[in-house]
Write the structure tokens for this entry.
Amino acid sequence: MISTVTAYCSSSNQAPGEYFTAAEALGRALAKNGIGLVFGGGRVGLMGCIADAVLENGGRVKGIIPRFLEEREVAHYGLSELHVVETMHERKMKLAEWGDAYLVLPGGFGTIDELMEVITWKHLGHHQKPIILLNINGFWEPLLNFFERIANEHMIPEEHGKQYSVCDTVEDALKLLVH
């Protein structure tokens, strides 16, 4: 049973509107299905959007933010819980530990880093948690194509696709969480 999901996503306020629409819909759906959110603790970008939607719909949200980002005034102080840690590594470890599944929305370098880490850890047998890429507007297609290339060139096992699921809609992602 999935009771808490870790979301990885952009902190950019300039991301395309359809990504904010998806993040808000996802936050509402998580709250309405009793699934808590763990995320990077920021009040900006898709991170802030999904957290606000969970909170506005009665859900619980845990944020984990390193002190240097809190000091830049990007911390979301309206959360159910906000944990301030000393390093990005500590943040990433808690994000990985505290969720029962990983939902990956569009994002930048940090989001890609977090995705690669949980895929690698799953491949190595460190966890068996679901990893779901929310492929809004085909956002993840270039990376998925790259995954195919490195599989075709025998850099990763052919069954790499079993490490994660790809969903084009919030509804499809939610189905994987509440099955």
Observations:
- Strands lie at 4-8, 36-39, 61-66, 81-85, 101-104, 131-134, 165-167.
- Residues 4-178 form a domain with the Rossmann fold fold (CATH 3.40.50.450).
- The chain has a mean pLDDT of 95.
- The helical segments are 17-32, 45-56, 67-71, 88-98, 109-123, 141-152, 170-178.
